[in-house]
Amino acid sequence: MSETVCGAAVRAAMADKHCRQFGARPVRSVHQTAIGRQLVRRRGRQVAVVPEDFTRRLERIGHQAGGHGAYRVQWKSSFLSQLTDGAIDTLIECFAHCPSAMSQISLEHLHGAASRVGVTDTAFPHRSPGYNLLVLSQWSDARVNAEGTAWARETYSAMQPYMAATRYVNYLDQDESADTVAASYGINYRRLQAVKAKYDPGNVFHLNQNIRPAGRT
Fold it and tell me: For 3-176, CATH number?
């Protein structure tokens, strides 16, 4: 079973909840792929053909709701150890309870050229083929802050059994620990700390996900 096809089928199934309001054409099954047919049989859910500009339309909805930058966002992310049937079922079940049409779950397939670079050749250490999971909760009404935040965190918690120990630093949120930042860079973290100690020993540039200079606690 192709992981690429599997990931595409999962994205299509999860898109069904929101796609109708954006002009998508729903279909009863995905005859082009075996995994698509299996997904429909196992979950009893519709799968939808999503327009190419689906994401751009979501962005416009957000801008119209509150203007640029008015989103309220909570996201959680981790690489998966494997994209198993259990992981697929959990993703779809969690998405069924998504409280906002602006939210999404993304599976990013790392493969090909990206996986042919050495682990220590750049700061980015994640070079094994696989999937990165992003749970992105977005909403514009402050009255549903609790629901939007809870959905992202609960979905992330439900996916814990299928996660690897690796994280993508660009997707770490503000509630992450310093240890998580170190884990995101893997074996490259100490080398990056040495670079930081040389060029920014006072840790002036310390916002976002910070790399602490070597020798600084």
Answer: 3.40.462
